[in-house]
Amino acid sequence: MFFRPEDGHGLPHNPFNALIVPRPIAWISTRGAAGVNNLAPYSFFSGAAYVPPQVMFASTGTKEDREGTKDTLGNIRENGVFCVNLVEAARTDAMNATSQTLPSGTSEFDHAGLTAEDCKTIDCPRLADAPASLECRLVDIHRARGAANFVTIGEVTGIHLRDDCLVDGKFDPLTFTPLSRLGYRDYTRVTEQFELTRPDD
Description:
Blueprint: E1 23-24, E2 26-31, E3 37-42, E4 45-49, E5 54-59, H1 71-79, E6 81-86, H2 92-97, H3 108-112, E7 116-118, E8 125-127, E9 132-143, E10 150-161, E11 166-167, E12 170-171, E13 179-181, E14 187-189
Antiparallel strand pairs: 1-13, 2-3, 2-6, 4-5, 5-10, 6-9, 7-8, 9-10, 11-12, 13-14
């Protein structure tokens, strides 16, 4: 099968949504100008650079009470900071609850029964007891093609690692079973790993 996205695919569901898999989920916490904490999952997420450490995520939708964007991006524009929290499988339901479209000014932490703690290097909440949290200062927001598509890049200024996730000096994802996004409404849990040595190592 071959299709041009501009012509449509003719399938019951868009296959593009299932091609970039598995995708890590950035559970992004922010704080609005009025002081309300926000928490929302984004699966268009990745690291962007090692030195200085940077991450990126894409926001691809809008909500009626936020002009042309969502609360997360709106808060980042206001404050210039955000925190990326990793999602463990044990918090799948809570993560899903924070994806609900809530009125601006409503805290998803409260909605999902989660605890927020202040970050150390930025004025922003983080998710208490997350396996890892990356405190980030805004580098840039790039407008991508499309009505409400934005790519945000942040420089990591502080990193929290949960003690039980460190094994023999390494951060071990199998200690918390990361949750990852597949296509459509599908997710997966990371339960095994293997090591490869590069040919030029």
